[in-house]
Amino acid sequence: MDKTVKEADALGKILQTLFARLPVSIDIKGRSYPVKIVGIKDSLYLLVSIPGKPSSEKTRILFLTHNFHFFHGVFTVTGRNANNGLELLRVQAVKVSEAKRSQRRVELESSESDPIIIHNVINQQHLRKSIGFVDKSVEEIIQRHAKKIKESYADSLVYLSDRMDNRLRIMYNFEQSIFVINRHERSSGGSNFVPMEEYLKLISLNKIESRFVSEICVLIRYKNYTPLGYVQVLSEKSMDTEDYNNITLFSAAISRDVINSGFFQESKEKCIVEDISRMGLGFLHPQSIFFSRSFAVGETLLFDMQMNRELKGTFRGVIRSIVNTDRMFRVGCQFFNLNAREEQLLNQFVDSKLGPDGGKQAPGTEEKNRQPGKPEESTQAEQVSEISPPASDLVEASSGLAHSEPDGSVMEEIPNMGFDSGEST
């Protein structure tokens, strides 16, 4: 039976335990797109990075699936910043129903083509925790690169840690580097970098010497996903795009060498994929100590996947199900905030099997495709029923949820982003 939650305390729990921690999608004109939840405010507000061009929508529909339940949230837009695509949303209600698969999948078990292989699997949470216990080989890599960077930029720093400081946190939340040409002239590298207003707040908390006018700070990432640290360069003179590109290369080299050192405990199993779609996949993994420690519903995995000889990359997914079969464990994953390159590779592969745009129906759109004149037809905001279960019932589907980012990747307090006022609630 479907349930609709309207009670403030219950809604706050849903946002904290589900929307802040699991892959979330948005419904835009009947199509689903992944969104990034940047922050939470007063339990009932989400700061969300909306894909695509700015719009004047007054209502947003966000949804996710967890433990075989579909969570369909109705939000009111209370603030919008057209410059960076951020919107401040106030939750009005969340409808909870049984999850049903609505996308076609490519079944591979009986396929005549070469199998899809997953390898180098690692738990994202364990990945970040391991940075707190770096060994001598990793320290030597960091020291070697730090020395090389100082040859070009005397006032530089390589920061690698399992704990997010303010600088690392703000870059991760905005998914952008810092590029400030001259902080006294309030100029930065452009809209693709951390906003100048946020940078000025940062340095008001984390002071830098007055002689520095320019800063470039680039994330060090594990295979372009999980942040491990950053390379920071300060300068008494304005830096330019050439400097930014150089520092980006330094960051990429550090990431490559740390990964190649074998420090991260990745699964050495070569796992066979049984089925795959644009939204997720299912693969087989044998029982092992690594499996017992790393695999649980709600955990986030990073893995390399080779779909064919040409299409291969690193992907990220949240575990949705684990089933013990006669042979081994079948793990069902939902893709989570993929990089643009990997998303393109995935679409290219699915297109080759299902045809262009095959299987792109958004979850839950069947509610909007009913015949005109039916009593069930209504607007998305009106599809909320009057059932409002107590708070104790509402998180039944979210029990045992693991946090994929242990250091609070979602901020508790949202920065002032210069929002235009939206519809008042």
TrEMBL record:
Q: Where are the transmembrane segments?
A: none
Q: Where do Basic and acidic residues bias regions lie?
A: 365-377
The UniProt entry, under Gene3D superfamilies, shows: predicted glycosyltransferase like domains (2.40.10.220)
Q: Which domain of life is it from?
A: Bacteria
One Pfam family for this entry, by name?
PilZ
Q: Which GO terms describe its molecular function?
A: cyclic-di-GMP binding
PilZ domain spans which residues?
Answer: 266-351
Annotated segments matching region Disordered: 351-425
Please state what the protein is called: PilZ domain-containing protein
The species is Leptospira fluminis
The organism's taxonomy opens as:
Bacteria, Pseudomonadati, Spirochaetota, Spirochaetia, Leptospirales
